[in-house]
Amino acid sequence: MRLVPWRDPLPPGIALHRLDLDLAAEDGDAWPDLTPDECARASRFARRADRVRFAHTRAAVRRLIAQRLTCRPAEVPLRADAHGKPFVEAGSDNAVPLFNISHAGDHALIALADPARVRCVGVDIEACARDLMADADALLAMAFTAREQREIRSGADLPRAFYRRWVGKEAVLKAAGVGMAEHLQSVGIHPDAHGAIAVDCAVPAWAGIEAMALSAPPGYAAALAWHTKEQPL
User: 3-state SS string over the chain?
Assistant: First the structure.
């Protein structure tokens, strides 16, 4: 397993790491940094790849946060909200970082954010399966606004256009802290050719969430979303 700090420019207050996974390896060296409940959860995965993906991604998250909190990885107080989004139980410590994770195939992304500068953060990576578009009409109608559908269909590479918007949409909704299924039509994702993403939000409370495309490994698409706090003058 290899944890790589992100080298491309990122918004102020955000750090990003990519975890490259060996899904044929064992997951035992991740277990000392997990809680007993997480070890039990990992052991319930029937497929080795799923077990390795979960165990090593969660262990990497714990190690990165433990460095900031100066504690052992297994002592990091991770919890999950009503939508299953993990967070660090902050108490009164304003230094506790915000974070978000996503994994797909052989890779995971881990975003950490300074709560003094960032309100929320979301990240998504997806392996681009081109056969996903076999039932494109139903899929586009379910997941995308009318404007997004027009933009996707106007592109020369429909699967690429689909995934560029899908990862942006998921990153934004993860930053907002809501479930995907019920809010797919509440966010419009409009990427340009340079990696910037314009975000249309139908929910006023999400105004101010920004997004950008990330340089993903070949065969993947990825995006980051965040909401910057206003800084005092």
Answer: CEEEECCCCCCCCEEEEEEECCCCCCCHHHHHHCCHHHHHHHHCCCCHHHHHHHHHHHHHHHHHHHHHHCCCHHHCCEEECCCCCEEECCCCCCCCCEEEEEEECCEEEEEEECCCCEEEEEEEEEECCHHHHHHHHHHHHHHCCHHHHHHHHHCCCHHHHHHHHHHHHHHHHHHHCCCCHHHHHHEEEEECCCCEEEEEECCHHHCCCEEEEECCCCCEEEEEEEEECCCCC
Question: Is 148 a residue whose pLDDT tops 50?
Answer: yes
Confidence of residue 93 (pLDDT cuts 50, 70, 90): low
pLDDT score for 209: 95
- For the whole prediction, is pTM greater than 0.85? yes
Give 88's strand partners.
78
| Cα dihedral sign, 8-64-174-233 | negative
Which residue carries 């990497």 as its tokens? Answer: 60
Instruction: Go through 9-31 and write b for each residue having 16 or more CB atoms within 10 A of its CB, e for each that does not.
Output: ebbebbbbbbbebeeeeebeebb
